[in-house]
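Board notes, transcribed. Complex of a protein with magnesium ion.
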Amino acid sequence: MLAHLPRAYRDWRVPQAIGTLTEGEAILVGRVQSVKERAGRFPLVTVNLADDTGMIAAKFFGRRHLFGRFAPGDRLFVSGRVTRAGLLPEINVTAHRELRGDEPYVGEIVPVYGASKDLPTRTIRTTIAKNLDRLVSARVDALPPALVKQHGFPPLREAWFGVHAPRDPADVERGRGRIVFEEFFGIALAAALKRARREAAGGATPIEPPPDWYERFVAELPFAPTGAQTRVIEQIARDMRRTAPMNRLLQGDVGSGKTLVAAAAIVLAHLGGLQSALMAPTEILAAQHAQKLAPLLLPFGIAVEAVFSSLGTRERRTANERIASGAASLAVGTHALLTESTDFARLGLVIIDEQHRFGVEQRARLRAKSAAPHTLYMTATPIPRTLAQTKYADLDVSIIDELPPGRTPVATFVVRENRKPLAYEFLRKNVEAGHQAYVVAPAIDVGETALSSALKEAEYIAREVFPDLRVAVLHGRLPSKEKDAVMASFKRGEVDILVATTVVEVGVDVPNASVMMILDAERFGLATLHQLRGRVGRGAAESFCILVAPNDAEVIERLDVLVETNDGFKVAEEDLRLRKAGVLAGTTQAGANDTIGNIVDDFKLYMEAKGSAEAIVSADPELAAPEHLSLRALIDDVAAARALLVTA
Ligand code: ADP
Ligand code: MG
């Protein structure tokens, strides 16, 4: 309850003079001049109120219980929205209070809470006000006094009262500063502790490759690695040289060449006598990894084994045997890798592709197949630098910020729904030039929603728009054998237009595809759209992304971000900024994992908290000193910090 901070405040300390009112929210105190009551289906009480400066008509809509309640001479406090339609200004009253005789009006700053229909802000406000004292008394004052002093923070109690029951607007800022710092400090402490424990525990096999290994690796490649790839591989090699297990997140936009980096890590592990496991979220992706990695690993004699749930029992057993005996140096697979029957002889490197698609527990289960494996997480979803700090606070982060040469950016357009035929024409031109195209829809089937569906769209375009072209459909409800078959024929060029749901989102690589058309584009997050766009532009041909959306200024503004940039990090930052605006406008429900602090706006505060936390943990890695015991309570108090510590 405490952590549910007000989203706004109404300053109801000083009533406004009626004569000075302008349109908008206002509060005032006036004396009743006359009362009019209108019964019927829409009851209305109109009260003319006056002070020394003027008169206003206060309207109480739909409040039959106020009939007979007011009489000339009464004093009323009212708040509401002022309009100036007729001769007399009007105020549509949302709250009022009767003041006796000459009772002075005692105003306050009223907090406004994010609310819902079932739990209105008024209920939240009174509940918090009633319990504030008790709630605050139950908090442990855990922030080291030195930090409180250094930052000039108010005491704990004052901070919480400052945000929930401020007497002055400045109380809010002061209180919030301390509360956010404390939260960030908890997260940073948890991250520092976790890191310290990992370092202290060690247990990973250090890998000292022959000095010429990288030259040998590069010599076999069909192209030269980009500067970014080389830099990241160096970071990984440095990590793997240590007994503290690597715990690294590799971020790189679609097409930035993460596979090559993964291959280098696998080669390193192999040279150190260790096996590797690579887990991807879908069979299509895992198969593609196996296929792309095999030639890169062949020169080093690394045998690859695939583990899918669609494998027959016998094939599965053979694969498991080769992994258990160590004959296979690399196991590539889906969740199927997690089953107990897949046992490694000497697993030393775990790579998890699209790590956010797996649960914490699944990632931990793969890593549990070895005592202390080096771990590399990969993601094509760029996470803004700011967000990465709280979300992945205990990971080292590598970024591939350079695309392989020769890529042309994907030209992106927003097309209004009524101009869809033009987009189809454009698709046809590209197909006639020998390329392939994707059409993505948000839903699989025509259901209760009004969304475009892949099945309906496929049927429609196959019959009405492109009867002469080869159209296929791909979605998540197809059996995985069928999915793979469709994807394979698209890859072989036997399908011109692939109508799909977002199953084509991640990693699928068909260089000949040059157009990505997305229906109901407004239904997708910017990050997802960027991912989808990354399915094209993988070959030499000029590529296009067409976003079909309704004619709505807000939607178009959002989609324009993609029109303007091909840089995934910029898209992600902008997405975060727009979503944050949404949260502030009260349109988005805050998730359970959200922090009070806003990592974008409060980034400086986070970095300060991080600095302080690291200094404390480096001097006392287990927080064992008596003056640090309360810090454990602080970590326990912050959900995001707790989560960091309990996960592997
Ligand atoms: P992603 O980061 O999306 O997984 P991939 O590893 O699939 O990207 O690489 C995308 C494409 O770029 C692949 O076809 C790959 O062969 C190619 N590629 C990767 N690195 C380079 C490079 N340094 N120079 C040229 N092409 C590269
Ligand atoms: Mg990939």
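Confidence is low (pLDDT under 50) at residues 582-593. The radius of gyration is 31 Å.
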